[in-house]
Amino acid sequence: MFLVMLAPVVIIVVFAIVASRPARLRLRGAHVLITGGSSGIGLEIAKECARQGGFITLAARSKSKLEEAKLEVEPHLQGGGERQCVMILPLDVSAPYDEIEAGIRGIEEKLGPVDVLINSAGISYAKAFEDTPVEKFEELMKVNYLGSVNCTQVVLPGMKQRKKGRIVFISSQAGQTSVFGYSAYSATKFALRGLAETLQMEVKPHNIAVTISFPPDTDTPGFRAEDKPEETNLIAETSGLFAADVVAKGVVRDMVKGEYMSIYGLDGFMLGHMTAGMAPCNSTLSALFQVLLMSPLRIVGLAYLKSFDGIVLKCMQKREKAKAATSAKND
C-alpha cells in the first residue's frame, strides 16, 4: 500500500528534476563529420544522415576505402537540396593535433562549419592482459580516446559561437562492464564515458548536446577480423550480434533528439539503466526506469557476472588439462 502511494510522488519528483532535452536537430543542410566513416557503424551513420538531408564528410585513414565509401553513401542523398554532397577527408585521428585541425579546417572551408561530429573512429584488440603488448594500450588510447578528444577540440569553439551543435561518442557495452580480453579496449571506452559526462555539463548552456552510444557486438569488418580469446567469444555469445545499420539508425535517432545515452537491445537496456550512476539524463521515462529498476537489475547483473566467471574458469581448466596431457605424452 505504501509503495502504491509513493509511486505518484516519485513520478512527480523525477519529472520536476530531470533536465529537458535540447531542441530537436534538423539534419537537412547540416554538415556532419564522421570519423571512421569508411566502414562499419560510421559508414551506416553516414547513409542515415544523408537520407535525412545532411551534408556528409567521411574521415578515415585510407583514401581508397573512403572513395569506395563515398560511392556507397551518395545514392542515399536526399532532402538536402542540390548542394548536398559527400566529401572525403583522409585523416588519422591519432596524428598530432595540428594535422587534425588543418584537415578539418580545410573541409569546413568547402562545406561550412561542422554542425554534427560523430566520433566513430576506433580500433580493438582482444587478448588477456599479460598477452597484450604495452604498445597496444598506448595505440588504442591514442585512436579511441585521444582521437575523439582532438577532433572535438577542433569543432567545439565554432559550435559554442553559433550556439548549436551535436557531438557523438561511439563507446561500447565494453565501456559499461568489464569483458575478459578487453583490458586495453575497455579502458578506452570507459574513458570516453568520463569525457562525455564532463563535456555534456560544460556545453549544455551553449545549446550543444552530447550523445554517447554503447553498441553491443556489431557485425562490422573490424569485428569479423578480430582474433579473440575463447573466453571473449563465449561471453559475447550471451548478447548476440547486431547489424551495423540497426545501431547506426539508433545513434542518429538519439542524436537528433538530443538524448545523452544511446543503447540497444535488452542487454543494452539493462546495462544502460543499471550503470547510469551520476550520468546525465534528459528523458523522464529513462529516469523513472533507472529509479525503479536499478536494484533488481543489479541482481540480474550479478547473475551475468557469475556466469562469466564460470566461463573463464572452465576455459582455464580446459587449457590446463590440455597442457598436462601434452606434457604427459612428451614424457
UniProtKB/TrEMBL annotation:
Keywords: Endoplasmic reticulum, Lipid metabolism, NADP, Nucleotide-binding, Oxidoreductase, Sphingolipid metabolism
Source domain of life: Eukaryota
Family annotation (InterPro entries): KDSR-like, NAD(P)-bd_dom_sf, Sc_DH/Rdtase_CS, SDR_fam
EC top class, as a word: oxidoreductase
Location(s) in or outside the cell: Endoplasmic reticulum
CDD domains reported for this sequence: KDSR-like_SDR_c (cd08939)
Protein's pathway: Lipid metabolism; sphingolipid metabolism; Sphingolipid metabolism
EC number: 1.1.1.102
PROSITE patterns: ADH_SHORT
Family from the record: Belongs to the short-chain dehydrogenases/reductases (SDR) family.
Protein name per the record: 3-dehydrosphinganine reductase
